[in-house]
Each structure stands twice: as structure tokens, then as C-alpha cells.
Design a protein that fits this description.
about 475 residues, five-stranded mixed sheet, about 50% helix, alpha+beta, five-stranded antiparallel sheet
Length: about 475
């Protein structure tokens, strides 16, 4: 069974996925949910505490009424006759006449197993409720308090029995409507709900505004990402503030700058390579087109010329591959290197480049971390470049020095030197601004040196020599590059 690879690849023109819920909406929803939960919990807690407080007030009021009843009962004098009460019914009647119940209270005089008198006010039919009567009968002997549910709602009963010598059971019943007692609490909770709703709406509006302001860099990032293409990487995000999102914005701008620089260098690299390869390919094609295959001398001459061009292209491709690999982590093979022997070895090798007055300025005596082969390659390239700009007998000197945590290596000559306006361009690929006419180089030598130095986290610059000429100096960290190279 075979599969089509094209079917496994993601479709380039696939329709974009439908957007889900935005981050701003989710933030507002989360804030709203948390605030709503907090307000609801606060409301429930307030209602529970206040309800318990109301119940305690109801019991305290009932206890106060019972205390006043007991006081009247202990005096035993009927204020109407200034004589002792003749019966429990008279005692209860006088109490109901002299005491005015609260708006949520009802006083009932229970005599002979029924409600004989009831205070005026609301809930006039409460004494006739069956649950009310049954509860009073249960508490008639010992008294006490109980909450019941009647046709008038939840009621708190407190029964104070009165025992007569003839065995008749009577009692004062203080009944409090809990619904009436909690009316102010319900009003307060209603006001709390309205205020909470208005507060929630205000918090939602502020959260939406603040989330939109904080997430603005993300929206700008999205818009900027849509504007970026292969030919235009110049778009940047506006940066404001000094928070985490601002730091993210700066990081993304730095990343875009690096990408733009990388793509620009890549385009220049391809343009330069194409331009340099075009000439030898044209030469090859032109000579092959005019080649006389029947003329052995023409064939031999053309063969030598084409092989020379092939060697030139091979060298060019090798240099280009070296430059392309210079940013790879495995480009360097770092090790501990004795700087003095390395400097002496380089000097011994460069003597074969030309008849010059080769000298050693100084040799650093220290152990450093570097890729010895790459540094040797860079120093040889600088020496070869110095040979091209000097004549027989001219001085070319090498040197090395360790200064604290820095390693310095240089090659100087007594040639014509490099003009200040050309010192930056000579390190560019195919930079041939300052090249002798007899130099057949490709203009990649100094760019390769810079790539090797950059891989070591170092720098290279050129300055005036002493007394004349140019001095190319490499500066490297003694402990090697900070980024991983293998």
C-alpha cells in the first residue's frame, strides 16, 4: 500500500481555523466569575450571620416578655382591684392589656386548652392554626421555646405555663413571626444585591478596559506578524511601559531584527554567490561552444582552461560552505591551547607565503580556550593578505598577548595600509575594494577570518601600522565562547 506524500503535507491554502474565545474575553469572564463568587459568598455569610442575630434578638425579646409576665405573676396583685388575682385567666388578661407586643409579635392567653385571648395586630388567626395549638399543648407542662412552620410562615413560640390549684393548665404564649423579623434583613440583602450587581458591572467594564490595554501588544504582534513576508521584515511593535508584556515586545522586536538581518544576509549571500559563479560558468560554456573536437591542441588548451575554472569554482564553493557553517554549534572544536607554541607554529608556516621580513613581536605565555586549527587558519589568511599588499623585504610581524581575560593576536605589515572609509567593507563577502590587480582572490578571505573570530565570541579590526601599513588585530575571550559549540 502506497501513500501520496502530498496528501500528508499540510495544505498551504487551507482555510484558517475559526477563532475561539479571545484572551480578553476569558480574562473578563474569569474576573467576573471570581468577583461574583466573592460577592455571593459575602452575601450568604452576611445573611447567615444576620439571620442568627435576628433569632437571638427574637429569643431575647421573648425572654423579656416572659420576665415581665413572671414579675406580674410574683406580685400577685390585680391592679384593677388591688387584690390577688383570682385566676390564671385574670392574670393573663391583665398582662395582655398592659403590654403592647412588637410588630412581629403576638401574645396569646392559653386557658382551658384553647386560646382565650390574643393581642391585637397582625396574624390575628395564628392562634387557630392546628400546628400552633399542637405545639402549645406539647409545651404546656414544662414550657420552653420552639420554631414551627404554620400557615402564617415560620413562627418562634415561647410558652410560659401557669399552674392553678384546681389543676387547670394555662399559659402565656409569645409568638414571633420570623418572616416579619427578617423583613429588614431581606431588604438589606436586596440592597446588597443591587449594589453588588452595579459593582460587578463596573468591575467588568474596568477589567475589559484594562485587559484590552494590557493585551494591546499581543494584538499588535498579530497584526505585525500578518504584515511580515519574505520580502519585508521591517515591521516592528510599538513599545510602551516597563512590564512583562513590554519586555516580551522588546524581545520580539529583537528577534524580528535578527531575522531581518539573517534574511538580508542570506539574500546578499545568494546574490553574491550567484554573481561569482556566473562568470566561471559563462567561461566554461563559451569555451565548450567554440571547442574544435577534431583539433587536439584546442582540446588540450580548453581542457587546461576549464580545469582551472573548475578549481576556482571548487575553491569558491568551499569558502561559501565554510561561511555557511560558521554559525553552526559544531563549527569549532574547542580545547586548551598553549598560546606561545601556537604563535611560533603560525610564524613557521607563514614564512612559506613569500619572501618577506617575517618577525615575531611578542608571544603570549598562557593557556587559553580556542579552536587552534581555526585560529591558525585565520592568522594564515591575514598573513597571506599582508603578503599581497607588500613587496619582497617588507616587514610582516605576528604577535600574541594575554591581557587579563582577553587574548589578542595580530598581524601587521609595512604596506600601503587601509583607508579608514574602507576598513568596514573589507570584511564583507566578495569585498574587493582594496585588492591589487594581480590578486586573483575571491574576496572571501577576510570574511572567513571574521566568521572564525565571531564564532569565538571575539572581534577583529584593522588600524594603522607602525610606522606604516596596516595592523589586523583579533580579540578573543580567554575562556572561549559563552554559547555551546559542540
Amino acid at each position: 500500500m502506497t501513500t501520496d506524500p502530498a496528501n500528508d503535507a499540510p495544505a498551504l491554502n487551507a482555510r484558517p481555523a475559526r477563532p475561539g474565545v479571545s484572551v480578553r474575553t476569558r480574562i473578563v469572564a474569569a474576573v467576573t466569575a471570581l468577583v461574583l463568587l466573592a460577592l455571593a459568598c459575602a452575601g450568604v455569610l452576611i445573611y447567615t450571620l444576620e439571620s442568627a442575630r435576628v433569632e437571638s434578638i427574637v429569643l431575647a425579646q421573648a425572654d423579656q416578655e416572659i420576665a415581665e409576665f413572671r414579675s406580674l405573676q410574683s406580685q400577685g396583685i390585680d391592679p384593677r382591684t388591688d387584690k390577688p388575682f383570682s385566676s390564671a385567666e385574670d392574670l393573663l388578661y391583665v398582662f395582655l392589656q398592659r403590654n403592647v407586643p412588637a410588630d412581629d409579635e403576638v401574645f396569646v392567653a392559653w386557658v382551658d386548652d384553647r386560646a382565650r385571648y390574643q393581642s391585637t395586630g397582625g396574624h390575628s388567626g395564628l392562634a387557630q392554626d392546628a400546628v400552633f395549638a399542637d405545639t402549645v399543648r406539647e409545651l404546656l407542662d414544662a414550657g420552653g421555646s420552639r420554631k414551627i412552620t404554620t400557615t402564617h410562615g415560620e413562627v418562634a413560640l415561647t410558652v410560659q405555663p401557669v399552674h392553678e390549684p384546681n389543676g387547670l393548665k394555662s399559659a402565656l404564649v409569645v409568638a414571633t413571626s420570623m418572616d416579619d423579623a427578617r423583613s429588614e434583613l431581606r431588604t438589606m440583602i436586596g440592597s446588597y444585591a443591587v449594589v453588588s450587581l452595579l459593582s460587578l458591572m463596573t468591575i467588568m467594564a474596568v477589567a475589559a478596559w484594562q485587559a484590552g490595554r494590557l493585551l494591546a501588544p499581543i494584538r499588535h504582534l498579530n497584526e505585525t506578524a500578518r504584515q511580515i513576508s519574505e520580502t519585508d521584515l521591517s515591521a516592528r511593535l510599538p513599545v510602551s511601559g516597563n512590564d512583562d508584556l513590554s519586555a516580551l515586545t522588546r524581545t520580539i522586536n529583537d528577534m524580528l531584527a535578527r531575522l531581518e538581518e539573517g534574511f538580508t544576509n542570506q539574500r546578499h549571500f545568494l546574490d553574491d554567490a550567484g554573481h561569482e559563479l556566473k562568470t566561471p560558468l559563462t567561461v566554461l560554456r563559451g569555451h565548450l561552444e567554440v571547442l574544435d573536437a577534431d583539433n587536439p591542441e584546442d582540446v588540450a588548451e580548453t581542457r587546461d582552461l576549464l580545469l582551472d575554472e573548475v578549481d576556482r569554482m571548487t575553491r569558491l564553493v568551499g569558502d561559501l560552505i565554510l561561511l555557511a557553517k560558521s554559525r553552526n554549534p559544531d563549527f569549532l572544536a574547542l580545547s586548551q591551547v598553549e598560546l606561545a607554541p601556537l604563535t611560533d607554529t603560525v610564524l613557521a608556516k607563514v614564512r612559506a607565503l613569500g619572501e618577506r621580513d617575517w618577525r615575531l613581536d611578542e608571544s603570549g605565555d598562557a593557556t587559553v580556550t580556542m579552536d587552534a586549527q581555526r585560529i591558525t587558519q585565520a592568522m594564515l589568511q591575514l598573513a597571506d593578505n599582508a603578503v599581497k599588499h607588500t613587496g619582497p623585504g617588507d616587514v610582516i610581524a605576528l604577535g600574541s598577548l594575554v591581557d587579563d581575560d582577553t587574548v589578542r593576536l595580530w598581524v601587521r605589515d609595512t604596506g600601503a595600509g587601509v583607508a579608514p572609509e574602507q576598513r568596514a567593507r573589507i570584511f564583507e563577502r566578495f569585498g574587493r575594494d582594496v585588492v591589487p590587480d594581480e590578486d586573483e582572490g575571491l574576496g572571501l578571505g577576510l570574511s572567513i577570518v571574521r566568521a572564525i573570530v565571531t564564532a569565538h565570541d571575539g572581534t577583529i579590526h584593522v588600524q594603522d601600522g607602525s610606522p606604516t601599513g596596516a595592523c589586523f588585530e583579533i580579540t578573543l575571550p580567554r575562556k572561549g565562547p559563552t554559547w555551546p559549540t559542540s
